[in-house]
Write a structure and sequence with these properties.
Two copies of one chain form a homodimer. Helices cover about 40% and strands about 10% of the residues of chain A. Chain A has helices spanning about 30-40, 95-100, 105-115, 140-145, 150-165, 180-190, 215-230, 230-260, 270-285, 300-310, 320-330, 355-360, 380-390, 400-405, 410-415, 475-495, and strands at about 15-20, 50-55, 70-75, 85-90, 115-120, 175-180, 200, 290-295, 295-300, 375-380, 420-425, 455. Chain A contains 16 helices and twelve strands. In chain A, the strands form three sheets. Chain A has an eight-stranded mixed sheet, with helices on both faces. A two-stranded antiparallel sheet of chain A has the order 1-10. A two-stranded antiparallel ribbon of chain A has the order 8-9. The interface between A and B is large, with 60 and 60 residues. Chains A, B: It comes from Nelumbo nucifera (Sacred lotus). Chains A, B: It holds the Pfam family Peptidase_S28. Chains A, B: Belongs to the peptidase S28 family. Chains A, B: This is Lysosomal Pro-X carboxypeptidase.
Chain lengths: ~500, ~500
């Protein structure tokens, strides 16, 4: 656990990025491959009991099939727990729950102090929590039940039932989550304040919807991270896309396959492009100041390391050879890969669920500006929705998330409504641009009536996110703990 | 409008009341008949434009059929409105929207002062807002989409779209509702604080679920209302049920039909019983201090008038003859009925939807204590759920409402979360026992950070509910208006 970064990430779904030169849409499949690897080999350093909860298929309709039961997985650790003490719940996101349990150190760190029960609930349609077993991903008819509101209702029902079964109805509940799980944690506190008295939402881009956050912001942030590491590195990456295109056109896919050390001959230049794209984006997302292994095994400050590789080539080396070498740091830091599965990466069930969510509710428009290190692109909603229709037979609902959960002028809304939500973000995290932009770190408040608490580490700080055992983050961690402590002591003094 | 009571009622669904002597379950059909009458003849004294909004069938799943569109009716009056001024929305309940628009004077009263737009949104599956047209009530397959969460989402989508179409996104929205509509208004502010900045929830028994409120409380309150009018009246009614049974057994249904002036021969003693029961319950619910015509045309203080009839009979008159005469005040105050349709009252579509809701989510257990004016009864959940299964093919979810919306220790929850919700209740209203029990009238607060505001008129006061043009309620009305005013001025000063 000591080396695991504690805060998590949204599985990226870069959709409908209509580049100027092409309408090819980028799906970072390679990532899924890496996730599957990890997911199949969870090394839980703390013993959790695995349980399954009989959950309703559809909380929001009462059709005959709505009452179908499926078994939702959750992990539970009562090692520190005392009856009546707090319950810390991780609101699982888009993957196997073990993966998130393994990578969420903060809950375990603070559990002894609070004598807290630890519960990690798997999100429906991920991991083993498959309402229709192997058929869960078959079509929109089954996938239709995969969405955030149903997931939140699952959490509420499970938590209430668990408290009842433990005869510990008065136990205060605090929810924790990172990335999409962080969005769920924040939304859970907003929608179910009677179930959870506080939420810690890490790296939760709840404002990445509609036009609340500029559409270029995500890739601007990635670009800035690389530019900050080295101006030359940025320029090489920016120039590499044209080279890639040229090599593909002039020398063909066979040559491209060799340059990329592809295990099989590539069928499309775009596979190679996506492979590079994925490496840069995910590395920016996991740019931890410590060696870590969340998405992939990576050294400390992997963006800097990638740029060192790019900058370290002899002067006449091509841009393409440099970026391929840099991307290989992401895919092969452990040096176990002899070649790369660039096309047709394995895609087991339970992990591509995010594509479905992005095609229905999680519509996060993203574009690349002309200054981006990626090729400039626009967001073509029509192409995107047509693609979703082709793929799943449903149309996206691009304004639903902001209607259901809000987002516009959220600061004003939360000022008069809601409390006990901690939004934490590292400012280098590409997702941080779609974050809740509340008060600065110095204005952090935990008072009983504080309406929200918001932290970030300054951009010029050495840490990006909050890796919990990294010493630069000690203040942050202890502040987080103090907040949770206050929520709970409020509860004990007032009954909630 | 001047004579209309302004605050509304829950259509009563007295279910699974297993009386000691019988398992017959009471459905107050006669009421539906009266509602249909009213609903068919709306006399809207203010001109509303009728509009239809293309609404999604299912907001919470993404199955292919979820995106089916139906047309949701709403009424709109922009007579007082200025661009950017507030929008007052009535969150429609279980009936035709015209009926609620006609009987909600407060919104119209305060509209000129606020230059407010008035919008009354019909609840899905009621009135003309039928997702499957005439087939809407066919089975659980269609009815499955009728529930409160879908209704709240409808309101949110419609309001957001309306504001956009009016190019008035910054208009503050306040929601209003009575009875079930009041529950919806309160829940709407809790779940959609980014859409509505305040709510006025009148007579909203949001705590009538699970075992939050004692199960006898509703009938205890009805009983108390009659007892307060006259102890003898209470005793006569209490004794009449045994007489009814005896007459039925000894003299038969033909004699019973004559006593009740039934248009057709009765087939069951229970029809007569339900007819009486309905009259007493609904009269207690509409015990206005002014002549009114909400459920039925009735004189001022109709409970007192009923008791005068009961007490005014010659000493040797039977209890049964007295209660039949008293009930006739409810059914025939206008003296237009030559006989009563006690069995097989017409039941048009759109009005028995409450039975479905009560069989699925709105499980409000109610029993009669031995001191009740009604026969003692228990709540037999098993019998109730079996009945729902037989009738609709679905089982109730008795704990769902409290999971989704809370209820237990709600005062503590709202203390730290939520704001700008006015709960108003008259203490004689039988539903008031399941109300939000917050601060007393004198402690009412409207301050920016007030967490909730709660009013009631003291039980020893002359008014029960808040009939808005009744002079005893002037203070209440002006306070309500001041609260709404504050919510809106907060909005103007801070952007929300």
């Amino acid at each position: 656990m000591a080396q695991s970064p504690a805060l998590l990430f949204l599985l990226l779904f870069i959709f409908a990025t209509k580049t100027i030169e092409s309408t090819q849409i980028f799906f970072p499949r390679a990532t899924h491959q890496s996730l599957i690897k990890q997911a199949k080999d969870p090394k839980l350093s703390i013993p959790y009991k695995t349980q399954f909860f009989p959950q309703l298929l559809d909380h929001f309709t009462f059709q005959p099939q709505s009452s179908k039961i499926f078994y939702q997985k959750y992990l539970i650790n009562d090692h520190y727990w005392e009856h009546g003490a707090p319950i810390f719940v991780y609101t699982g996101n888009e993957g196997n729950i073990e993966w998130f349990a393994e990578n969420t150190g903060f809950m375990l760190d603070i559990a002894p102090k609070f004598r807290a029960l630890l519960v990690f609930i798997e999100h429906r349609f991920y991991g083993e929590s498959l309402p229709f077993g192997k058929d869960s991903y078959k079509s929109a008819k089954t996938l239709g039940y995969l969405n955030s509101q149903q997931a939140l209702a699952d959490f509420a029902v499970l938590i209430q039932s668990l408290k009842k079964n433990l005869s510990s109805e008065a136990s205060p509940v605090v929810v924790f989550g990172g990335s999409y799980g962080g969005m769920l944690a924040a939304w859970f506190r907003l929608k179910y304040p009677h179930v959870a008295l506080g939420a810690l939402a890490s790296s939760a881009p709840i404002l990445q919807f509609d036009d609340i956050t500029p559409w270029t912001s995500f890739y601007d942030a990635v670009t800035q991270d690389f530019k900050d590491a080295s101006q030359n590195c940025y320029e090489v990456i920016k120039g590499s896309w044209a080279e890639l295109q040229a090599v593909s056109e002039q020398k063909g896919l066979a040559e491209l396959s060799r340059s990329f050390r592809s295990c099989e001959n590539l069928h499309s230049m775009y596979s190679a492009r996506n492979w590079l794209w994925t490496a840069f984006v995910y590395t920016a997302m996991v740019n931890y100041p410590t060696e870590a292994n969340f998405m992939m095994p990576l050294p400390a400050y992997p963006v800097r390391e990638m740029c060192k590789i790019i900058d370290g080539f002899p002067p006449r080396a091509t841009k393409l050879s440099r970026v391929v070498a840099a991307a290989s740091l992401y895919y092969n830091y452990s040096r176990t890969e002899k070649c790369f599965k660039i096309e047709n990466a394995t895609d087991a069930h339970g992990l591509h669920g995010w594509d479905w969510q992005a095609c229905t509710e999680m519509v996060m428009p993203m574009t690349c500006s002309k200054d981006s290190m990626f090729p400039p692109s626009t967001f073509d909603y029509k192409a995107f929705s047509e693609q979703c229709m082709r793929k799943y037979g449903v149309l996206p609902r691009p304004h639903w998330i902001t209607t259901e959960f809000g987002g516009n002028r959220i600061e004003q809304v939360l000022k008069r409504f809601g409390s006990n939500i901690i939004f934490s973000n590292g400012m280098q995290d590409p997702w941080s641009r779609g974050r809740f932009q509340g008060k600065s770190f110095s204005e952090m408040k935990c008072e009983a009536l504080s309406l929200f608490v918001f932290f970030f580490l300054e951009k010029n700080g050495t840490v990006m996110e909050c890796p919990l055992r990294y010493k630069g983050a000690i203040l942050l961690v202890s502040s987080l703990r103090r907040c949770v402590e206050k929520y709970i002591s409020q509860h004990h003094s007032t009954g909630h």
